[in-house]
Amino acid sequence: MLILISLIQILNMKFYRDHVWPSTLEEAIVIQEKLRDQVITEDQLQEPIQYVAGVDMGFEADGTISRAAVAVLSFPDLQVIETSLAHRPTTFPYVPGFLSFREIPAVLDALEKIQTTPDIILCDGQGIAHPRRLGIASHLGLLIDMPTIGVAKSLLVGKYEELPETKGSSQPLIYKGETVGAVLRSRTGVKPLYISSGHRISLPTAIDYVLRCTPKYRLPETTRIADKLASAK
């Protein structure tokens, strides 16, 4: 079912383009279960970090066309270096827990267009804070062999203790007895974010970079800029 054969080297990013995308939820579950053990939740970063990127999605024509956006920013000053957009037909339905199968094909198209290789990619979605430990950040990180972070706006799985209102406060996100992420207050007095390792990055490091990419608003600058691109008409 899952084939990872063709490896295209583009700048420093590796794209597995023969990844077979599923047509049913049953096939998607098999893929997630097979890939989950390949996810690395320890730091494997190329330091110093010079560029961070955000990826986000929008949809056109009643959801039949996927619109993927990538924004690459300098780090730590968070200035926009490069952006890209890609469109392609949407081939998988919207089902919570399976968003990577709907979104990643267009995201790969957008990543192929950029000339600046990011050191870390912040994804609008989950990493290992996922029922089968393979949210979009982990899935994408595996396919391009890059450090990725899941930065989700809503809870998918897990429970956590009450969180203080001050920026930088965090609590472990626990699912089935395991810490799968953290609930992070990125701005004082606003709703928290749900942070988890995507691939090749530890949770403490992920939290650190999310905070450093969030100087003013609730969302990281990478996500805010990519979101504007993905939702622009």
Automatic annotation (TrEMBL):
<protein>
    <recommendedName>
        <fullName>Endonuclease V</fullName>
        <ecNumber>3.1.21.7</ecNumber>
    </recommendedName>
</protein>
<feature type="site" description="Interaction with target DNA">
    <location>
        <position position="94"/>
    </location>
</feature>
<dbReference type="GO" id="GO:0000287">
    <property type="term" value="F:magnesium ion binding"/>
</dbReference>
<feature type="binding site">
    <location>
        <position position="124"/>
    </location>
    <ligand>
        <name>Mg(2+)</name>
    </ligand>
</feature>
<dbReference type="GO" id="GO:0003727">
    <property type="term" value="F:single-stranded RNA binding"/>
</dbReference>
<feature type="binding site">
    <location>
        <position position="56"/>
    </location>
    <ligand>
        <name>Mg(2+)</name>
    </ligand>
</feature>
<keyword id="KW-0963">Cytoplasm</keyword>
<comment type="function">
    <text>DNA repair enzyme involved in the repair of deaminated bases. Selectively cleaves double-stranded DNA at the second phosphodiester bond 3' to a deoxyinosine leaving behind the intact lesion on the nicked DNA.</text>
</comment>
<keyword id="KW-0460">Magnesium</keyword>
<keyword id="KW-0540">Nuclease</keyword>
<dbReference type="Pfam" id="PF04493">
    <property type="entry name" value="Endonuclease_5"/>
</dbReference>
<keyword id="KW-0234">DNA repair</keyword>
<dbReference type="GO" id="GO:0016891">
    <property type="term" value="F:RNA endonuclease activity producing 5'-phosphomonoesters, hydrolytic mechanism"/>
</dbReference>
<dbReference type="GO" id="GO:0006281">
    <property type="term" value="P:DNA repair"/>
</dbReference>
<dbReference type="InterPro" id="IPR007581">
    <property type="entry name" value="Endonuclease-V"/>
</dbReference>
<dbReference type="GO" id="GO:0005737">
    <property type="term" value="C:cytoplasm"/>
</dbReference>
<keyword id="KW-0378">Hydrolase</keyword>
<comment type="similarity">
    <text>Belongs to the endonuclease V family.</text>
</comment>
<keyword id="KW-0479">Metal-binding</keyword>
<dbReference type="GO" id="GO:0043737">
    <property type="term" value="F:deoxyribonuclease V activity"/>
</dbReference>
<keyword id="KW-0255">Endonuclease</keyword>
<keyword id="KW-0227">DNA damage</keyword>
